[in-house]
């Protein structure tokens, strides 16, 4: 066996060992990471571990080719170029994954919370690897990319301590079967100021009067008077005569 053949055989063995080692390390780390990150969600932990496993396998392959190559400098330069190209072309995807890591670790909100980010308000339906789904006050489903939460402040109205008030609203000249619908339409206009959905405690009819007991949980105590006035204004816009006690 010539020295060149012996050198080539050694390089082939080392290259194969490099790939085997990267696969072994990737599989081992996947189990460890999945176990330790499961508190942030099983799907997130599995996905993160899988990405790391593929990264190690690719790294092992690059090292293997570097060992086999006669010109390591050229191969390294090509590998770096490909890596930079992938980063640039997939920057939005990586930004969304970074956003998911932030949301899972920092946990500024959870499913079911009512939030406001920018000009968007709504209740969280789900938190995914690329986006967050919310439903607006109008019932529209809105998809927000995770990277959006890295650039804009989030107001979580479900994490504040609300001020609860009970209102008695007296309706005059309104049909009983239209009362609840009218109330919910008016309440929808002040929903962003409320900690959670308002609750109708009771509806009673006496003669031409309908008395409604309403429970509101207001986020900002200083806006209590504004909320009551806004609610009264919304009823008047709909041509409904009321008294608020």
For the structure shown, list the relevant keywords.
3 domains; 245 residues; SH3 type barrels; alpha+beta; 23% strand; 4-stranded antiparallel sheet; 51% helix; 9 strands; 7 helices; rod-shaped; Alpha-Beta Plaits
Structure description:
With 245 residues, the protein is α+β, with helices and mostly antiparallel strands. Helices cover 51% and strands 23% of the residues. It is built from seven helices and nine strands; from the N terminus they run H-H-H-H-E-E-E-E-H-E-E-H-E-E-H-E. The strands form two sheets. It has a five-stranded antiparallel β-sheet. A hairpin with a 5-residue loop joins strand 3 and strand 4. The longest helix has 34 residues, at 3-36. The chain starts with a helix and ends with a strand.
